[in-house]
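User: Look at the shape:
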Amino acid sequence: MVRFTERTPLMDFWKRHKDHSVCSAPDTLQTSGRTARRKRKVVGSWAILAGVVLATRVAVATPYVVPSGSMQPTLLIGDRMIAQPLAYGFSTANLPLGNYLPGTGRVFARLPHRGDIVVFRNPAHPADTFVKRVIGLPGDTLSLHAGRVTLNGHELPWAYDGLSLEELSDGRKVPAVRYTETLPGGFRHPLLKTTTTGPLDTIPRVTVPAGHLFVMGDNRDNSADSRLDQANGGVGLLPVWNLQGKAIVIAASRDTKAPTGTVSEALSSIRFERFFSWVK
């Protein structure tokens, strides 16, 4: 027997309401799921990007801004330079928060060459980054008299290279004399002198111990370096653990004390001639 059921408006309303109620929940869940997946994808993309940036800084190239004139005339205040972070191996000093991490060793360690310009954590204040030139290696004996360096019993040759200017931190420029110093092996680099009787022109003989370096600024009369111990505001003998990399190129440069009120002034403050120049 076939049984017929008469449809009424109330039954039709109930059926429509029932069908809508049953179907709307899965739709809402699907939309919520898609939103969550999109959020996870965005977060994942940003995490990957952050990882790539961090890996690049740690392993390939690390940018620095030169804040002082201690390496004039080689590096100027306002230079944006790039350092090769793994040039001398790896230590926790290479990490962004390495000053909070323990450790004194290096992996795949290589010593710098005399004349290399190195970036390092200041041993007295590891949160501060310094840049200096390597003059003495482990085992070297070194002293200074009247500004001239004697390395392993031989005075390093100097050659007069003309008059120059030293830029001070307040933007003023004072007269200076430029020289070229020749290191063992024939490597030559410029240096700056503003006086013939600088406060650090004479230091007693010191032997660089194992695992350390003797570093100096090219601006010999305005550099806190290995000629001063840490108690007196200097670097002292630099542990190789503190090395963060080797300065290799100036990517950009700007005179930080020049006026920039107009477009013309802002453009004039940029040292285009220093862009992409090698650090030597």
